[in-house]
Amino acid sequence: MPLIAAATGKTPSRRPVWFMRQAGRSLPEYRAIRANRGMLESCFDPALVCEITMQPVRRHDTDGAILFSDIVVPLKAAGIDLDIVAGTGPVIADPVRTAADVAALPRLERGEVGAITAAIGLILDELPDTTALIGFAGAPFTLASYLIEGGPSRTYQRTKTMMLAEPALWHELMGALTDITIGFLHAQLDAGVDAVQLFDSWAGALSAATYETYVAPHSARVMAEVAGYGVPRIHFGVGTGELLAAMTEVGADVIGVDWRVPLDVAAERVGYGVAIQGNLDPTVLMAGHAVIERELARIIREGERAVDAGALGHILNLGHGVLPDTDPEAITRAVELIHTL
């Protein structure tokens, strides 16, 4: 598998590429199959998860298939009352803000994510042998931010206030969410995924000192608990240029980089010794073929400089997810170009 080879310091047979949020939104076949189906309902339908996961692989010939799911799926499976509202994102019915709220959080039992593990089995039966299946989970901090804020936030005011003013309660909450994250990843790994990505999507809202004190120990426990499976562990967040070293040190084998930091600079910041993933700005895919070709050539040069300096490998990806209005043909052409450059 080219993606696994690049992640582990081997020479891939072709330059590997996959895109975050490739399974969904931009694809007409996705919109058709999701018509009148809620997001969470879809995430617990094994046949539907398999079909949506496979759609971009069939259409674009990507080297990775990302499991169709959502970072709040294990919270929903555990019994937390939440929904994913179109145009808004996850909305929590009863935000977690007190010691009693934290104490009442449920645990995740393996059977509660049986639909997800069943979907993985269906995907593996259909997936080409050369394409890696990537499982994923939300990191404890990002899950905590949704639970505390009650939904998406721009300031993370309540989250940071609990973190700083009530550190004991914060670590209790993070410990519970770390257990849920580990359980969800174990279920996926036991079902046969080839790699896992830990999404700490909103960690970029934190300072380096705050991240290292209040977040890193819990993410490190997640990474340590999945290390025994021997599969690549990818770590990614948005706006985390100043946190890249700390996010790598928690146990990442591959560090995801958004478009704000050049790949060779990112590799230098993390000290090499790991693979890098990224980092095309998603809007480039909407700017025409000439721009796509120019930007991909630049990113590939940066990735090659990073590898020459000691990075294990380069997996090409976006710096965040595919935008809903992206022309699928532009994605297909970009993949073809990446495989020839």
What brief labels describe this structure?
alpha/beta, 49% helix, two-stranded antiparallel sheet, seven-stranded parallel β-sheet, 341 residues, TIM Barrel
Write the layout of secondary structure elements.
Elements lengths: L1 H6 L20 H7 L4 H5 L2 H15 L3 E3 L6 H6 L3 E4 L3 E4 L6 H5 L10 H13 L5 E7 L1 H10 L7 H9 L1 H25 L3 E5 L8 H7 L1 H11 L6 E4 L7 H6 L4 E3 L6 H8 L4 E6 L8 H21 L4 E5 L9 H13 L1
Parallel strand pairs: 1-4, 4-5, 5-6, 6-7, 7-8, 8-9
Antiparallel strand pairs: 2-3
Pfam families: URO-D
Keywords: Cytoplasm, Decarboxylase, Lyase, Porphyrin biosynthesis
GO cellular component, one term: cytosol
Secondary-structure-derived class = alpha/beta
CATH topology: TIM Barrel
Straight-line distance between termini: 18 Å
N-to-C SSE series? Answer: HHHHEHEEHHEHHHEHHEHEHEHEH
What is the average per-residue confidence, as pLDDT, rounded to a whole number? 97
